[in-house]
Amino acid sequence: MDDHSPRADAPAPTGRVYETPPTERPITDAEAARAANLAANEHIKIASGYLRGTLADGLLKHATGAISEDDGQLVKFHGMYLQDDRDIRAERTKKKLDKAYSFMIRLRIAGGVVTPKQWLILDDIARTYAGNALRATTRQTFQYHGVIKSNLKRTMAAIDAALLDTIAACGDVNRNVMAATNPAQVGAHREALKLAKDISDSLLPKTSAWREIWLDGERVVGGEDAAEIEPIYGRTYLPRKFKTVVAVPPSNEVDIFAHDLGFIAILDKKNKLTGWNVTVGGGMGMTHGETDTFPRTADVMCFVKPEDALKAAEAVMTVQRDWGNRKNRKNARLKYTIERYGLAAFRAEVEKRVGKKLADPKPFTFTGNGDRYGWVEGEDGRHHLTLYVPSGRIKDVEGGPQFLSGFRRIAEVHEGDFRLTGNQNVIIANVPAAKKAEIDALVAEYGLTNGAGALRRNALACVALPTCGLALAESERYLPDLVSELEESLASHGLQDEDITIRSTGCPNGCARPFISEIGLVGRGPERYHLYLGAAFDGSRLSKLYREDVQASEIRGILDPLFADFAKNRQPGEHFGDFVIRAGHVAKTTNGPDFHARTGALKPAA
Ligand code: SRM
Ligand code: SF4
Fold it and tell me: Domain Nitrite/sulphite reductase 4Fe-4S, which positions (predicted)?
């Protein structure tokens, strides 16, 4: 358990030379249009007429299931990605057929809360347009896969009918805002959810393009004045994606250290909110072999009173808007801006924009970044059931759990709400005591009971193949088998009940946050992974590359001796991620730039 007051292992700022921050907003529209060295996406944004591009026309072109390349970038701001089925790509190429194109659609659901009525509509959409599946993501929302172009507008209209949308679920904007689910801490959850929704609303792009294109809405006229059309973003939006989360200690289920901007609730002894610590500069994505790209855990920058939180969010985002790198997208996230100019300069600029000095962070403690499974009773006597959903894939498994049908039946009788967690799970929340038995019966009838071992309930895998265009290796379709193997190995050392976090991704973009997991697997190529160890159980410390480019079949053999050593030599209460560092198996990572240093196994594990 680490005490953050602020980050105990933050790198010493002494000796580090930072660049001088820009004094004014670096690109005006005119400058941007002229600047040839800006990243290609900047030009696409400028030319798009506030995210319109040629999307409306592209949808009418029936000869192809795809859209143009530039529109493919723009459509992300509308919450969609053009994909193709990679399982059949080679076969189709051989037959000289076009790729099997379809779209992934991601919803914006601040804090991951949906009503039963909304659930039923989302279920209908899954059955009608999206291959009978919903996919709960690592950022508390749903994705649909496999929606074909001719069904896009119908799908969006149905989403609108659920009083939901997909605006800014992807793209260079503030994305879906996550919030702690904390079923037991009702008051704190309410505050966290409110802040998440407020930030989501206030930092939402204001262009009417989404309604126009997908719902045949009227074009809102207002000239071409950026200040009027997009008062916060302007014509060029942000240099890169921007992610915001709200956490309530002691649970770090939202993995606050992995995000650009975070708010940590500081509660008094009576669990009343006194304000928020603000975190900045977390992120996971990197590129194999490029050491100027790295994951980074966020810094705990300052404390704000509740009434200043929204202003602080806008200030952090607009400093990144103005200081972020628009020439190189690989170095454009806020984490690199902070590495470039230093936290002190960044904080000073945020304070200038908030209009006051901000207090230093208050102490807080996180105990873990996983979910609490099973029933818990909240402060108000309502009950909440967290159910494990393997990789968040809500579908009916032949001969197995019927997640789609089961949750539908529950939605038909449930009077509370559903909450998606950042660990791809689902909470049936706000159940009165009298309804518990009915919910339990449905959970049993549809096979939704957890029954997962300790490692599995702490496992997270990104989508990867077959839909993700960036995957180098399997993840969601591979991790369950590996976990079965590792659970055998753990049991042989008496560690079957040990909570150890394990996460896999098909590439180093880090969508399941593998670099803050005690065991992290990151795809290198078909059936080959980098193996990372040594992250903190509470998600506050990055891991380190332990073994490079291992075959999937080797992983159990590599980890087994480490589990044996852990079982024999661990200290009471010590977590696996801390143990491998103390026992000298792998070096500790202090933060982002240190991630690539001192890699590799430090001693033979046996
Ligand atoms: Fe992600 C891109 C899926 C959470 C870092 N992510 C992608 C794309 C859209 C691939 C693409 O660009 O073509 C993936 C779509 C796969 C598919 O078929 O659905 C994809 N990311 C996901 C999801 C669905 C993973 C999951 O299994 O749940 C998560 C959706 C979250 C959401 O609801 O918004 C998801 N992605 C994350 C996270 C985790 C987080 O934010 O907590 C990260 C790491 C944190 C971070 O942002 O640094 C993450 N995704 C990336 C990156 C690397 C960004 C970077 O700074 O380098 C990319 C690639 C990119 O942006 O260029 C990416
Ligand atoms: Fe795709 Fe890589 Fe993200 Fe996995 S980590 S979903 S493979 S982009």
Answer: 200-357
